[in-house]
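Researcher: Please generate the 3D structure of the following complex. Treat every line as part of one assembly.
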Amino acid sequence: MNATTRETTAPVDRRAPARWSRVLRSRGWLKLIRLLAVLFMISVLTFLSLQLLPGDPARVILGDQANDPATLAAMRHELGLDQGILARYLDWIGGALSGDLGSSYVTKETVSSMISSRLPITLELVILSQLIALVLAIPAGIVAAINKGRGADHAIGLWVFGVLSTPNFVIGVILIWIFAVTLGWLPANGYQPWSEGVGAHLGSVILASISLAAAPFALYQRVLRADYAETLGRDFIDVARAKGISPLRIVFRHAIRPSILGLLTVTGLTVGVLIGSTVVVENLFGLPGLGAGLVSAVQNRDYIVVQGMTLVIACSFVLINTLVDFLYGVVDPRLRGATAGNREG
Amino acid sequence: MPETPLLQIEDLVVEFPTRGGLVRAVDGVSLTLGRGERLGIVGESGSGKSVLGRTVMGLNDRARARISGRVLFEGKDVLGASAQERRELWGRQISMIFQDPLSALHPITPIGAQIAEAVRRLPDVDKAQAAERAVELLDMVGIPDARRRARQRAHEFSGGMRQRALIAMAIACKPKLIIADEPTTALDVTVQAKILDLLDELCTELSIGSVLITHDMGVVAQHTDRVAVMYGGQVVETAPVAGLFAAPTMRYTRALLAAIPQMAPGRRSLPVPIGGTPPNPLERGAGCRFAPRCTFAEDDCHQAIPELLALADATDHRYRCWHPAAVPAETEAGAR
Amino acid sequence: MTTELTAPPAVPSGSRRRGRASRRRSWTWMEILSATWLVLLVFGMFLLPLILHLDALEFDAKARFAGPSAEYLLGTDNYGRDLLARALSGAKVSLFIGLGSTFLALVIGVPIGTAAAYFGGWVDAVISFVTDVILGFPGLVLALVLTAFLGASKTNVMIAITAQAIPAFVRMARSQTLALMNRDFVEASKVLGTRPHSIIARDLFPNIADTILAFAFVAAGRAIIIEGGLSFLGMGLPLPQPTWGVMINEGRQYLNTDPHLILVPSVFLMLSILSFNVLADRLRADATTDGGGKGA
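Model: Done. Output below.
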């Protein structure tokens, strides 16, 4: 809001307590510092997770082989246990920042190369499932809102509620049963890279994407239905009708944009949930993504890999949420310049 | 044969089913409006005046409201019209101005684009012409620096400017009728008069008929030709504005006038508030709607609803009262 | 406007705690079914094994992959173990962990969130920061990694699921309290010089309780999903304890021949989560029509 126009009324940032803090907030400095602090704390917690292991981490990791003093000493050195904890953290985080997260004790592969081969698959799943969820939820939400309180709304609502209450691995199993076992249209399991052909590739990820999309779809439909119904009750919709604008144009142009903010926010917040869900779904469908990697690392007690992958997952989650927060201001010009602190919780 | 009036409302009844029962918001209203005429509809909140405006416009949700009676625009039935026919009417023939200009403007679309959208209802107007016309219209309603302002959004406008923009939108297609529902209630007093003057000016210039819905007797006195006073869903008195102020006949009209502070020099009377609260539409008695609050009510007032009768010496001045005031207000107030 | 006519009668704010029962909606059939399912499940998981002499771990080599019969009401799995017995045993785990971790998260999270909102300033800044950090880990990832490092046991699974649920309660309580703080009656208490703890106890908690309770039902459903996910991945309770997630995971390989191995635990899981969600929706609707938990 530019303060030069006198006639301007800007009700958005009235709660900012003092002028200097408003400046600080509006510039986004506070957000940036906060973001860095959150990332730092995440790295510390991830690093410290190794301390949760009962007893000597090196012994736990080595299991039976810990009886050999030479191997044990090598592992202790590898883990940096022979150094102080601060030095060990600095060493680890320094490596992380330069792309070195150590290497797997089990496969000897470096963690960063594991991540870089697995991350694209997880990202593809997340993006595909977001697209599926949005493409289904937007019409479902609008149709329900327009028919609010009538049969179509109740029918969609019931369906959505059922989907919302079904864990993704159950949905995945149901999809496998229908499309792989019964109909035989799609493979139940296994990953086909792009090089095997577009059809084969998409066929290998589509069921997983739909399983992932189910819960977000239900959430988006509910959010959009509520916001859209509220928008339809606002005066400017009546004004548009009174201008003689066609109902279709009102539905698709006038009412959508003011209703989309809530949807955008939850879409962003859902990215993290989806990354969490890939852990289960990739495992179910045998897709070699980050989530499946994390699970097999956990199962193999490959703690270095667990640490590295957790760090990457958590940091990307936080960064994506920050990005969504930023986009929020771009989409709604009323909030531009006056975002920050006011919208937490 | 007189020409067909611009707007005829005949025995209009609007009801809403609610949890408490059927609410009759508009109860047998009949009104006529000539071309270029300015009709004021006055009443307290809950008197049914806003519902009346929306119904005339055809904006009420047909599934929720039960409507009977007739609304004729230039002799053609509005209520029975198909959605398509009604849409032809909206914007082109009838437009509406709403109470709260901030919520009546789209929050994200620039003001100019919103007006251009209305302009494009006219045949053979392309996008560029519409945008240009929108700037002209903004200029016409007195918004300085219209070209720059057209690119701004509702939240960047002040209250008065928002209402000006809405007026620009309403006159974009030079309609024959504008329905203004409390157009100045949300505005500062200082801005109110300017907006109403602007509306008057434009309506005269473009010979647009107007229905001005308000709770403010002062606004009615200055900005309308004829007045209908509404109470409890009914028209309780209707007259040319001069006649109404010269001889307010129905007790409620009189009470409304007495409630206005008189600031003219030489006058001594203090405003007299109307006692009680507006009636609950679910608990109406059999008699005159105003009877429970009327200081002059007698037994017969509670028995039956009075007819809308014409004054003996002025047939276009009709009122609904069992014990009408026959003498000017001040004299009577003094006598008591 | 029409809204004036159709709006429900205004409720005087501040005195909402009593006298609202009369305005409560009657129960819909969905809500009745949900409550019934949960009650039946709780009674069933304790009583049925005693009445029917069920054993979730007993093998029956003669009745592998059996369909429903008088002896095995819901059939048997690949080892001939009774699916009903296993599902009921899984119910104990899911409900214990789901409700237990939700209760712990509520008891820990709500006071923290309320304090953050009430005291503001540094307290709020620190609490919000810590919440943000924990929320940086997706719920299932946090639970998975925690159980991985702590070791899979009933207590540790519970700790892990509680840990991932706390931040949501903190945020919920914080935003609810903030919304309330701006309302007149809390302001009035402050002006009258009431002390903080008694404002929190008398004015704030009763007024946010409805909304928090509704949220607790959602959280319980979520906790059960996460518990299911962990055991599905083999990172939940140690074997041989049957859980719904484990049953679904084990049934996967027999999907083409014996889908009922998966059907039984899936139906138990879905119905339970659905029931929690339906009841949560109901509680939330009640909380908002009471005017207690506006916002958020």
